[in-house]
Amino acid sequence: MRLIDITNSYPHLVAQQLAHTDTQFVKVYSLGSTTVVYTQAATHDELLFTNETRNVQDAELAFTLEKLCGVGLKDVDVVRGPKLAEISLNSQARASES
Question: Which InterPro entries match (predicted)?
Fold first, then answer.
C-alpha cells in the first residue's frame, strides 16, 4: 500500500475545512480506491476514510494510522458507516504514544 498526497486536487475542501472548523492542517491522500482526509486541530486529529465502491478495510486503517500518526488500530475507536470510516485522536495522547 502507498499513501499518495493528492491535496492539490481538493482546494475547495481544504479551504472550507480551514475556514469553517478548528482545523489547522489538512491533507488528502489516495490509498488506491480509498481516499483519506487527515486533519489536525489544536486538541485532536481526525482521519476520514471513504471508498465509493466498498467498505473501508481494517488493513487500510491500520496502515494509514501507523504512517500518519504512529499508532495502531487496536489503540483507537473507529466509527464506521457504509463505505466510510472515521477516527478521532486526542493530540496529547497521540504525542505521548509516538
Answer: DUF1827, LMG18311-like_sf
Question: Read out DSSP for 32-87?
Answer: TTEEEEEEEESSEEEEEEEESSSPPPHHHHHHHHHHHHS--GGGS-EEEETTEEEE
User: Average pLDDT by consecutive 10-residue portion of the chain (98 residues)?
Assistant: 92 87 90 94 92 95 93 91 93 52
What are the extents of the domains in the chain?
4-97
Q: What is the pTM of this model?
A: 0.86
Tell me the CA distances in angstroms from 42 to 83, 84, 89, one per residue in order: 28, 24, 11
